[in-house]
Amino acid sequence: MVPFAVKMWSRCLWTLLPLFVPVHGVFKKLYCSLSESCECDFKPDIRGLEWDLYKNVFGQHLAQEAVSQEVSTFLQTKSPDRPLVLSLHGASGTGKTLVSSMLGSHLYGSGMNSPFVHQFIPTLHFPQAQHVDKYRRALKDWVQGNLTECARSVFLFDEMEKMPPGLIDVLEPFLGPFHVVYSTNYRKAIYVFISTVGEEVISKAVLAARRSDRDRDEIRLNELQEAIAHEAFNSTDSGFSGSRVVSQGLVTVFVPFLPLTRAHVERCVRAQLCQRGHCGRSDVVQAVGGALSYSPKHGQYFSTTGCKAVPAKIDLHL
Ligand SMILES: Nc1ncnc2c1ncn2[C@@H]1O[C@H](COP(=O)(O)OP(=O)(O)O)[C@@H](O)[C@H]1O
Ligand SMILES: [Mg+2]
């Protein structure tokens, strides 16, 4: 804990900082050695994020492209006209939570443990739909309070399909370019929504590509945007059901996560085996790949659990 007097003094120093533009780096270092503020913990590493996505996320060319591009454009814009709103969609075990964690880790020095990265899980934070009014007030106050404290706050909402209907719309004023109502720093925040909604339309697109002998990597982002937005808005349990966040176009990009094939899952197995010091065990890779279940019935192209069941299966076969 930093003592209050030191905290106040370091805050003063921060306000005076623009006066010392040529020695900005030195003063920032001094300030940050005393402060726990978000300006100090915010250390975006765009190249690191791109590399992590490219190297450690398998079979997700759309997520790699969309996340790298949107995050890099957003962070390079000095004064963004609206916050960055990413909505990640796809079947279970395809890498949505993994990618959101990579984002948090490459933005803040203390990664996902940063006090400026806020994670919400509906079953934990908003378990009872009948209390939606109470949750709306609490969520609005939480977001507003934290944005006042730190303009670069990151808000992650996992399992959106379990979000009580009507709750997420309380964020509408924070997500748009509302210059008059709110101050500029509300537009530097990043929001990430995660759900399985749209998994069928995504899987249909990959199957259609397969049938027409088109490589899955040739599927483009804009082919899926509208279909996912439509699903999110119209499904009763998407967290975005009838939501103005969708109808007003406040989501920057809907990021599709494609269903993983056996080859992708085997890459997950190999990566995890290597982490445990068993890089050469191709027999285990084969065995785990063969022990998982695949869909659809005709074709059996996609792992029904993505890479989620991999650690448990490795334990059985190692
Ligand atoms: N595309 C992928 N590439 C590499 N690892 C993956 C991928 N998808 C899932 N995994 C691994 O599988 C586990 C579950 O993934 P997770 O991101 O939690 O899936 P979900 O899409 O359900 O959020 C994690 O350990 C993650 O590292
Ligand atoms: Mg998840």
UniProtKB/TrEMBL annotation:
Listed GO CC annotations: endoplasmic reticulum lumen; nuclear envelope
The region annotated as signal peptide is: 1-25
Q: Which positions fall inside the Torsin-1A C-terminal domain?
A: 264-315
Q: Which domain of life is it from?
A: Eukaryota
**Mind telling me what this protein is named?**
Torsin family 2 member A
Q: Which InterPro entries match?
A: P-loop_NTPase, TOR1A_C, Torsin
Give the GO molecular function terms.
ATP binding; ATP hydrolysis activity
| Record flagged with keyword Cell division | no
Subcellular location, in the record's words?
Endoplasmic reticulum lumen
Q: Which UniProt keywords apply?
A: ATP-binding, Endoplasmic reticulum, Glycoprotein, Nucleotide-binding, Signal
Q: Which family does it belong to?
A: Belongs to the ClpA/ClpB family. Torsin subfamily.
